[in-house]
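ESCALATION

Customer reports they have been waiting on this structure for their group meeting. Please prioritize. Original submission:
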Amino acid sequence: MNASTNDSQLAWILAGPKAGDNAQLRALAGALNELGDWIIDEKPLAFRRYELLLHIISRPTLAGLDKPSRTGLRPPWPDLVLTAGRRNELVARWIRKRSGNRTRLVHVGRPWSRPDRFDLVVSTPQYVLSPSANVLINPLPLHQQDRVKLSNAAACWAARLDHLPTPRVALLLGGNSGPFVFTSAAADRLAEQLNTFVGSLTGSLMVTTSPRTPSGFAGRLEQAIEVPLFSYHWNPDAGANPYWALLALADRIVVTEESISMITEALATGKPTYLASVAPAASRPWWLRPDSYRWKPLTHRLAMAFAPARFYRDVGRIHAELIGDGRAAWLGEGDPSTRHAEDSSLSATASRVQALMSESVGRRDKAPYRL
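Update from on-call: job pushed to the front of the queue and completed.
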């Protein structure tokens, strides 16, 4: 049985290893809470190394989870599962199977399984999915601007950053992802651009890395910076991370191009946002560039060539929209011409999910899902 009590409904957030995915799920859960009586329960999941192999058969299973994660998944089953990322998919479908096909599944991002195996897929233009009855395409990832969090972070870090000249430019560094490889050459190019940009403002630079940032890249970049600098290297054991403080205290924000989540968070502040390219110069074909044969760019290229269309990912589609309407600019190529207007995607998505939950149970019983 499912866990609804009176008018309340139970939603499980399947929290996987990617912070950006989890942030979107929490934002959607928060927006749902504003529309109805929801009980939100977050289920942290940790996976075994062989998890990827289970997707060859693509059957609902918990075999990819470690034992503590499996222990947390037990009745009463939720009315709704919010999930994102490949690793969570087979788990979400297992939960629905155990609920007698009564649990609804909402997947955020790109599905590895076919979209028709979810009640709703919430995606963005970087994935080649067509809008349909169960596929919603938003212009950017879901994001809930938490102004209290920003304000508190600014108050906590203001004194430590007060010595930096204004205007202050925040640099948000992502990391290796698909075709984007953070090489030494990319660090040198970015440092040169930042020295020119920040130097022309007679300001300062505030840098924060992320879990994906190669340490060698960050170190090489910082050694080449010639303007006043504050730098923070992400560490899972560090107690105080200045990420939100930098967003709050910056006058301008630069984000590496591959991180759509951080670009979304920067735009939400309403501050001028610049995209920093880490892509190699196009002077040589990809097969003559040594970095093309690293694991991530090579597997990305193979997936783009041979995998189903739903595996395709092109963040350039989002870049083009942001640059085209003036909400962002490439670093070194002018300034944004407009401010990012308040994005209504989150509230619209929550309304779509709420409407989904209002549909009759009888419809599901007559048309069971393929597992």
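Sent to customer with the following note: The two ends are 19 Å apart (CA to CA).
Escalation resolved.
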